[in-house]
């Protein structure tokens, strides 16, 4: 799974991100942590970021994108990731889209945790009052005043991402005012549906690829019709030869029959002639006998 969680401060993104990491075995990519890790490792991008931060400047988007790019190349990000704290603006989202496109990585979903800001402020006020009542120290960044400023920053810079990802059909909204368990259950339901769709697409693609391979093999072997034509073509000379042989045999048989007829005819003529000659001799002999008797 490759996800982005959107939502104002106090919406529960951190809690849900940790649960998703545990459930799917993916990594949570925090831009702050990635920057510190890159600086510590003294990567080329980390060195650039270090000089800018040391001078008190804000790290440009291109450097942050470069750090994310390096992080996505690490083996533990192969199974998926959750981006935490990035993108915060539309230009950052566009830069991220370009990066993922170059790496041929598909973003599965952007999950927005939608909350009621007034209810969030009330929660912080209640929590701060309870901590002070127990004598506990209150974090400087965990006060209603700080939250009000952070919410205003979110509305002006990050909220436009909701429209950006909605147009790209990546946005899925969950009611962040539900209980933590209910929010987790709804996110799981959404991701399961996405997984089922992806599995169906993969199966369809595999089937299509199998059909293409079969067609390729069949094409290489030659289509049945072509094979039939080739066989017929190859058989034609033999058939002609056989036909010529048959014709020759027929002619020979016809000649033999003619010869036989001729022989028979000749035999009949010879027999008839022999009979005629024999009859003639008999008549001559009879005449001679008659004459001799007459003389006597």
Outline:
With 296 residues, the protein is of the alpha/beta class. It has helices at residues 13-24, 31-41, 44-54, 61-72, 90-102, 117-133, 144-158, 160-167, 180-221, 224-295, and strands at residues 2-6, 27-30, 81-84, 109-114, 171-175. 72% of the residues lie in helices and 8% in strands.
Question: Could you please describe the fold and organization of this structure?
Answer:
- With 296 residues, the protein is an alpha/beta fold.
- It is 72% helix and 8% strand.
- The protein is built from ten helices and five strands, in the order E-H-E-H-H-H-E-H-E-H-H-H-E-H-H.
- The chain has a five-stranded parallel sheet, with helices on both faces.
- The protein is elongated, with a radius of gyration of 52 Å.
- The termini are far apart.
- The mean pLDDT is 80.
